[in-house]
Amino acid sequence: MTYSSAAIWAIIVLLGIGTFLIRFSFLGLIGDRKLPAWVLRHLRYTPVAVLPGLCAPLVIWPEATGGQPDAARMTAAAATLLAGYFTKNFMAAAGSGAVVLVVMLYFFG
Amino acid sequence: MTSQVRSAYWRGFRAGVPFLVVLIPFAMVFGVVATEAGLSVAEVLGFSALVIAGAAQITALQLMQDNAPVLMVLVAALAVNLRMAMYSAALVPHLGAAPLWQRAVIAYFNVDQTFALAQAEYEKRPAMTVPERVAFFLGVATPVCPPWYLFTWIGAVVGARIPPELALDFAVPITFLAIIAPALRTLAHVAAALTSIVMALLLVWMPSGVGVLLAALAAMVVGARVELWLEARKA
Q1: First and final CA of chain B: distance in angstroms?
Q2: Which residues of chain A neighbour B176 with C-beta distances below 8 Å?
């Protein structure tokens, strides 16, 4: 890395400001004004629309295997989803995923 | 502070604590990798305290290791964070009535974990008052954000390697899937999640963060459409 200390701090501070503005954007500017029903209908799906897409490439092409699809990680992801769907419990879901991952890696990893 | 507000804070706090299991090692990995790349301890801590976004921090760091132009580092890392504009919008109906300074504090702490837990809580308990909602959000943030700073700092100072056998690369996907699975309450949620997965995989060639954003927009449209269709069928 050949940046000056000033350049590194510029990156850190500007990234901090930019990230804050992204996070503040709608919440800051719209405030208490009512949103139309169709907008609310879309926003209700924000978590289930973002996080699965964020995970999908990490599950199918894991970095740890150099991008090679891996049975252990895919099984663990499936176990997490199934346990979470049926128990509605975060800890049960994450725990099942972790146990399946460790067991699968132990036997087949 | 009323007792309801206090109990909302502690409910959030308890909901956020399990994330520590993943967050501590992940924060330490960032601390170690960033120090090894040549950042000072103060710079590493500055990153975590000002940005609080693991994926964006790692993206920036990878580009900095390649000595990419400053502007490129900023654009690529901010693209990774663009999804959080949607989080900001999704919080408006729940927190828009809070005072501006409180909305600013919440914006600073608006990360994947705090947002997802808060949104689920607000939908489950629509009767919550605005101060209770703010307290819940800050309750989740307490065990999530300060430990993020603390453990990047420890990683930077101690510099211990995490053994690769722990398969920590997969802790983050498991956490996010464990957040999402209980939220798949209706066919509309399932359809949105499936759209998000398929679109994100199809758009994986796009710059980091942009494919996810487009996939999420498509998934929200599908979720809303399926919801309307289900309502029409019921009527």
Answers
A1: 44
A2: 51-52, 54-55
Chain B closest-CA separation from residue A1 CA (Å):
5
List the single residue in A13, A25, A48 with the smallest CB-CB distance to B193. Answer: A48
| Predicted-complex ipTM score | 0.91
Using a CB–CB cutoff of 8 Å, tell me whether A18 touches chain B.
yes
Instruction: Round to whole Å and give the CA distance between B193 and B182.
Output: 12
For residue B146, being part of any structural domain is answered with yes
Identify whether residues B154 and B195 lie together within a single domain: no
* Residue B173 placed within a domain: no
Mean pLDDT of chain B: 92
Percent of chain B with pLDDT over 70: 97
Confidence of residue B171 (pLDDT cuts 50, 70, 90): confident
CA count, 13 A, side-chain hemisphere, A47: 26
> Chain A residues with CB inside 8 Å of B92's CB?
26-27, 30-31, 35, 43
Q: Is the dihedral of CA B37, B41, B43, B44 positive or negative?
A: positive
How many structural domains are present in chain B?
Answer: 2
**Chain B contact present for A64, CB below 8 A:** yes
What is the reported pTM?
0.89
Residue range of the domain that includes B88: 3-167
* Domains of chain A by residue range: 1-33, 44-108
